[in-house]
Structure formats: C-alpha cells, structure tokens
Amino acid sequence: MQTLALRLDPGDDLRAALVAALLASGHEAGYVLQGVGSLSVAQLRYAGQPQPDTLRGDLEILTLAGSLSADGAHLHMSVSDAQGRVLGGHVCAGCVVRTTAELLLALLPGRRFTRELDPRTGYPELKIS
Prior knowledge:
Layout: E1 2-8, H1 14-25, E2 30-45, E3 53-69, E4 72-80, E5 86-91, E6 96-107, E7 113-118, E8 123-128
Antiparallel strand pairs: 1-6, 2-3, 2-5, 2-6, 3-4, 4-5, 7-8
Organism: Duganella vulcania
Protein name: DUF296 domain-containing protein
Domain PPC: 1-129
C-alpha cells in the first residue's frame, strides 16, 4: 500500500477530484482513508433513496471514506451544518469544496477495482482483481 495526501481547493468537485487523483497516480485501486474540510454544497443520497438531497451553506466534512476506481467511486460522508446538525450518506457528484478538503488516500499497487452492475442490488458494485 502507498499513501497519497491531497488538498483540494475552493470550487473543486470532491468526488471528481478524488477519481482524478487516482487516475493521475497511475493506480487502478484505492481507498479514501479519511477526509476533513468544508463544503458549500453537498450532494448526499440517504439509505434507500433513489436521488440525492442537496445541502447548501457552510458545511464541515466530519468523515469521508470509501473506495476509488477508474470507473467510479463509492464514498460515504458525514457533514455538519452551521448549527452543528449532522447528516451523512452516499457522496454524489456536485459536492463543492468551500475552503479546503484535506484527504488521505491508500493506493493499492497490483490491484484493480472496477464497478459492475449487480442485478441483485441494482447498483454498480465493486469488483476486485
């Protein structure tokens, strides 16, 4: 395992930047070990819901973890708003960094993660090779 520390800038799309960092590293499998920072927009899909909810405002990233592959990511995150309320769920495209996002990735040399539709779940699920 190798590690890669990242800092994202204001305006970056969190999910897209993580997949781009994996691709730029030359690896085909990785995990987000942890992430902290702030967002101005969070797109979170809650358990059992078909579409994400949009959260806007000053949001703090409390936790961020998940798997990364060249063809997608499976990330979960919890955020708090300016009143300290905490929400969490599946990270969708459109999470916009407000001031910073500081992330630690684990890169897995010799491994390849892909996403394939699993008819049992209806979602593209992780395949490890």
